[in-house]
Amino acid sequence: MITVCIRYTIDIHKTAEFEQYARKWPDPIRRCGGELVGYFLPTKIAGPTNFALALINFPTLAAYEQYRQALMRDADAKANVEFADNAHCILLEDRTILRQVS
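The chain above was modelled as a monomer; its predicted structure follows.
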């Protein structure tokens, strides 16, 4: 099992738009072969307020590669990326592939 961690740097004035973007991902992620752990937004209680995380599990690296190809063909996924681009709520995305320590 691998987990893809996507760290987003977001515009703090467009958190609502990012949240709307995040809420649209569960179905395309599932349909394309990922298992969404969740999207996480910062709080104003502690730490930086300009980042968010998404965690998505895959059985193998090959499954993740297939998922990426399927996602590029998925109409809902493409529309959601276009929404975020137009909203300018995401300033930067970093992806890391992690393995769980058992």
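The chain has a mean pLDDT of 96.
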